Please model this.
Amino acid sequence: MHVHFSSARMTQVLEAHERWWKGTLDRPLAAVTLTDAYPAAGKAAAPLLSQKTCHELRWPAEAVIERLDEELSTREYLGGAFPRVDLACFGPGVTAAFCGAKLDNSSGGVWFFPREKMELSDIRIRYDPENVWVQRIRALCRAGLERWGGTVVIGMPDLGGVLDIVATFRGSQNLLTDLYDDPEEVLRLIAEAEEAWREAYADFESVLHPRSAGYTDWSGLLSREPSYIVQCDFCYMIGNAMFRQFVLPTLERDVQRLTNVIYHLDGIGELNHLDTILQIRGLRAVQWVFGEGLPGTPHWTDVYEKIRRAGKRLWLTGGAEDILETVRRIGGRDVYMPVWLNARQEKLAEQLLEAR
Model:
C-alpha cells in the first residue's frame, strides 16, 4: 500500500491554501476526500488511531503509523484536500492532560478531569514535557515523518481553548462563579494555561518543522507559516463584557504569535461575541458551527455575510448539498469547504470542485 499523493500535488495544494489565507483565491477552497477510492490492505495489526483507541499505548508508534498508512492509502484527495494525520484523536483540549489532568476515553470519546478537586488559589497549570501523552504524540510525529516525509502532513493535536483548559481543572460551574468572586485568580490561571498552550505548541512544532510540508490541525487547513484554529467553548456561557476581559486578550496574542489563525465559533451562544471576534486585527477566518437540531447551512447567510464584510475568510460546515446551495447564494470567494464523500459520489465531488 502507498498513499496516492505526490510531492508535486502537495506543492499545488499548499499554494491554493496560501492564496486562500491571503484572500487572493478567486474561487472556493474545496477540499474533497473520497474515503473508499482504493481497496484496503487489511494487514496492519494495530487499531486505527481514534479517540476510542488513543489510550492503547501497548502498540509501538511505528505500528500505529502503519495502520494509519493503510487508511490514508484508501483515499483519493481532490481539490485542496491532502493526506494528513489528525491528532485531535487525543481529545479537544488535550493541553489539560499535558498539565496533569486525567484523560478518560471510557465512553468512546475523550474527556478530561482533574485528578483532585482543589480550591481556586491552589491550582497550578504547568506544561510537563515528560507527560505520557506528550511523549506518545511526539513518538507518533517522529514515526510519521520517518514513514512519509512530506507526503503526509501531521497535524497539531487539539490543544483547546485557554479558558476551557482552566475550566477542566476548576470545573465549569465553579469557574462561572469565580469570574465574579475572584477574577484576579482566574486571570492568573489563564496566564498559566496560556503559557502551557504556547509551550505545547512550540514543543510539537520543534518535532514537526521544518521537515513537514506545512502546518495543519483538525481544521484541515494547510499553511506555510505557523497557524492554528483557536476557540473558547466556555464563552458560550458568559456575556460579552466577560468575554472581552477573560478571552479576548488571549486571542489577540494568538494572532500576534501565529500568522494564519481561524476562530472556531461553536453554537448560537457564541454569536453574542461575533462582533468582538471580527474586530481582532490579524484574525484570518471564522468557522461557524450552528449545531445539531438547528436549520442547515443555507439558513445562516446573514452570519456568513457579516464575517466576509469584516474581511475574514469563511469555513462552511454541513452536508455537501447544503454547502453548494449556500455558495450559490453568497458566492464562493474566501470560502473553505472541506467535504468527505465516498467514491460513488464522484458527480457531487465534481460539483463541489467546480463551484464558484
Q: What stands out?
A: The first helix runs from residue 7 to 22. DSSP finds 13 helices and eleven strands in the chain. The first strand starts at residue 29 and ends at 34.
